[in-house]
Design a protein that fits this description.
two-stranded antiparallel sheet, about 0% strand, disordered C terminus, binds zinc ion
Length: about 350
């Protein structure tokens, strides 16, 4: 283990010295530490490596859905590259670091936050790994409820539905989503962490571990973790059912499996679905499904338009499954939409 840590820090130092520092100098950027940028780049490359060298080949070996081509997955790969190489490090550096410094969690105070659980229960200060575990449970619990509300409140579904519009759900789909939704989510989740006194490095580490677990849970494979482990960690079978298209014969079946990393919140609150064969993924609502034909900027723009169509109307605040109709995206109960033919052949 120490060998790996050493190898990692050697590689980071090498990258920092030979690539990042000269690049920063050439760009006349002096107030960013080359080591920080090199560390973030190494983590991003490691993740992209794991997705493309492990998860992606598994999709060819044992696919849940068989596709004639992978055309629709390309845009999701772009989303992942933008997130890992750009938005995630930028958000951590420009927003979270100053925010957490403000609350006393800066490196100058030894990385120790002055607020949070460590202050209230000093025992946690001596057991940082247990604190991290407790924080992670709370983080995932918060995510579970946030995710349920994303599906329940029409203006939030207007944003979150873009993540669900993908018909070819793959190892790249996790980062496909509305950037406005991403900002709202990140502030809520980071807020919980900062409130608990988790420092910024720990938060970044947790986010990255979650990211990998989620990349895998979106992977198009037909196997899961088995009958015991699939109750402990979210696996591809579990999350694929969350992405199922509405089944007109069982119109509530798709309201299931909201957990991000741990499935036990679904088990506890009655939304877990196991033992169901894979269904076709995507959405039936034509106003959302058309995302599949758009590029990244148009997808973001139309998602904002849907959001605006919903948030300024009373019907945008009434909980329930909705679809969007008309040029200004009026939310209506999805039972009024009528159903697209349910293409069972999209599944294997
Ligand atoms: Zn969802
Ligand atoms: Zn998903």
């Amino acid at each position: 283990m120490t060998d790996i840590v050493q190898l990692w820090s050697h590689a980071t130092a090498w990258l920092s010295l030979h690539a990042v520092a000269p690049a920063l100098q050439a760009l006349h950027i002096h107030d960013v530490k080359a080591d920080d940028v090199a560390g973030a780049a190494m983590i991003a490359m490691l993740q992209i490596g794991i997705i493309s060298l492990i998860f992606r080949p598994l999709e060819s070996l044992a696919p849940a859905d068989r596709w004639a081509d992978r055309n629709l997955t390309r845009i999701d790969r772009l989303y992942t590259l933008i997130m890992l190489l750009g938005l995630f490090p930028l958000f951590s550096y420009l927003v979270l670091t100053p925010f957490s410094n403000l609350l006393g969690g800066s490196a100058e105070s030894g990385g120790e936050s002055l607020s949070g659980v460590k202050l209230w229960i000093p025992w946690f200060g001596e057991h940082p790994w247990i604190l991290l575990g407790v924080y992670y449970l709370l983080y995932d619990f918060t995510y579970y409820w946030l995710h349920r509300i994303q599906h329940l409140i029409p203006w939030w579904w207007a944003l979150h539905s873009m993540h669900h519009s993908q018909r070819q759900m793959s190892c790249w789909t996790n980062d496909r989503g509305s950037y406005l939704d991403g900002v709202i989510q990140s502030f809520i989740l980071a807020g919980v962490g900062i409130f608990m006194g988790v420092n910024i490095e720990e938060f970044a580490f947790l986010t990255l571990v979650s990211e990998l677990i989620q990349n895998f849970s979106h992977t198009n494979v037909r196997f899961g973790f088995g009958k015991v482990l699939d109750k402990v960690l979210v696996d591809p079978k579990f999350h694929r059912l969350h992405h199922m298209r509405v089944d007109p014969d069982r119109p509530n079946l798709h309201n299931c499996n909201f957990g991000q990393v741990f499935p036990f919140w679904d088990i506890l609150f009655g939304t877990a679905l196991y033992g169901e064969p894979p269904h076709p993924t995507g959405v039936n609502d034509p106003a959302v499904d058309v995302d599949n034909e758009r590029g990244l900027i148009a997808m973001q723009w139309y998602t904002i338009k849907r959001f605006w169509g919903a948030i300024r109307r009373r019907s945008g605040w009434v909980p329930g499954d909705v679809g969007f109709v008309g040029d200004d995206f009026v939310p209506v109960p999805s039972s009024l939409l009528g159903h697209q033919p349910y293409e069972a052949e999209a599944s294997h």
